[in-house]
Design goal:
By secondary structure, the protein is mostly helical. It contains 16 helices and two strands. About 70% of the residues lie in helices and about 0% in strands. Helix 10 crosses helix 14 and helix 10 crosses helix 16. It is elongated.
Length: about 425
């Protein structure tokens, strides 16, 4: 993480120093794109948790300036370092209102933006206008292929950087505690980021290319017109994220009902959900499968609300197998009545089955739930609970899931959820 930030800082300083020394080429175009990026960054206010790109207009504007070779048929004249300087100036101006409100921009997001835009500019600007490139792509339809190809590479670069930053952030709590262990797996994180490119990321990339190509022909007058579709996309996506956040809050509230009623220990559902997501990533789950796993983990004990006599401390892992299955089936029936995705209900219903008959999310929920139940039961503690799970791998718990749980616990990368 420090290397990424340091590289971004050096790139920003080089761009600023070069532009101050050599001057600004085509100041009107630089000012127009600087204003666009600033407005895009300011539009991120009100962003909700879960938004992969809170400032899509700013990102599209920065990419368009990096891929801009002509303005109204005339050469643009700017170079790679001027692109970085304009981006830096826009970021600094957008930071002023944030600082006035007592908030600061995310350093990792800003560093990622500088490196991604710098990568696009380094790939495009030296190639544009060269005799070899002009002879290969010409000025017709094939000319569009160059920015599209570079945009694909830029998207891959952005996904690689994003996954590295997420991996570093997940290891930060472990590093602060001085814990050892292996780092978080990079592959599932990268797959998540690549999957994210198909959503708002594809809209940002497409708008960046269309902006660059449109301005090359029509001039700066095309800039406000081309921004409208992305603004509408941002509004629609923000509404989608708000609905999904409300949906998750509803599920979390339902999960807490077992704690409020005294059927489970405080924080049990949240601890199980956090560990299940970490184990799921360890085993390669991404996207919707990971979301189904999280929801099922949050609601895995909701069947206990149908019991007349609560289980002591909500520890269903110590009950007979037939009783565990009965509670799981009751939980699945409750989940189906709430209107939650049917896949979540299936995971909740089958969490007590022999692991060879379960889908992978149910195997994870069963093992992690048992670990949290056993680690809070008497003096055996976390190590004793993990050993009990390993002894049960012949029938109750899948060995691969138990070992993935052991690796997650060894890393110590999860922050414990406080009770209540």
């Amino acid at each position: 993480m420090l290397a990424i930030r340091a590289t971004a800082v050096l790139l920003a300083l080089a761009g600023l120093g070069h532009t101050l020394w050599a001057g600004v080429h085509d100041p009107g175009t630089a000012l127009a794109f600087g204003l666009l990026i600033t407005v895009g960054e300011l539009a991120r206010w009100g962003a909700l948790p879960g938004e992969r790109e809170p400032a899509p207009l700013g990102a599209a504007g920065a990419l368009a300036y990096a891929l801009l070779g002509r303005v109204g048929g005339e050469p643009a004249g700017h170079d790679v370092l001027q692109v970085i300087a304009v981006l830096l100036a826009a970021q600094l101006v957008a930071c002023v209102p944030q600082l006035a409100r007592g908030s600061t921009p995310t350093a990792d997001r800003v560093a990622r933006r500088f490196l991604t835009v710098g990568f696009a500019a380094v790939c495009f600007q030296p190639l544009h206008g060269s005799a070899h490139t002009a002879g290969r792509f010409g000025e017709g339809p094939y000319h569009v292929m160059l920015p599209l190809l570079l945009l694909v590479l830029t998207g891959l670069c952005d996904a690689v950087l994003a996954a590295l930053l997420v991996r570093s952030r997940s290891a930060a709590p472990r590093a602060r505690r001085g814990a050892g262990g292996t780092p978080a797996p990079y592959g599932p994180l990268l797959r998540d980021e690549l999957r994210g490119l198909m959503g708002i990321g594809s809209a940002v990339c497409a708008t960046g290319v269309v902006m660059a190509l449109g301005i090359a022909v029509a001039g700066l007058w095309a800039l406000p017109v081309l921004c409208v579709p992305l603004l509408l996309t941002q509004v629609a996506f923000r509404r989608f994220v708000a609905v999904r956040a409300t949906y998750r809050q509803t599920i979390t509230s339902l999960a807490r009902s077992t704690e409020i009623a005294g059927y489970t220990r405080p924080g049990h559902a949240r601890r199980v959900a956090a560990l299940c997501v970490a184990v799921g990533r360890e085993l390669g789950l991404t996207g919707n499968r990971l979301l189904v796993l999280e929801y099922a983990a949050l609601m895995h004990d909701i069947g206990q609300l149908s019991l007349v006599d609560p289980v002591a401390d909500g520890a269903t892992a110590v009950l007979p197998a037939a009783e565990q299955r009965r509670i799981a089936l009751l939980g699945g029936a409750v989940v189906r009545q709430t209107g939650v995705d049917g896949e979540v209900a299936v995971v909740v219903e089958r969490q007590a089955d022999p692991y060879r008959e379960q889908p992978l999310p149910a195997r994870i929920v069963r093992a992690v739930n048992a670990y949290d139940d056993l680690s809070g039961e008497g003096p055996i503690g976390p190590l004793g609970a993990l050993e009990r799970l390993r002894l049960g791998t012949g029938h109750d718990y899948q060995p691969e899931v138990v070992e993935a749980l052991a690796r997650v616990l060894a890393r110590g990368g999860l922050v414990p959820v406080p009770p209540g």
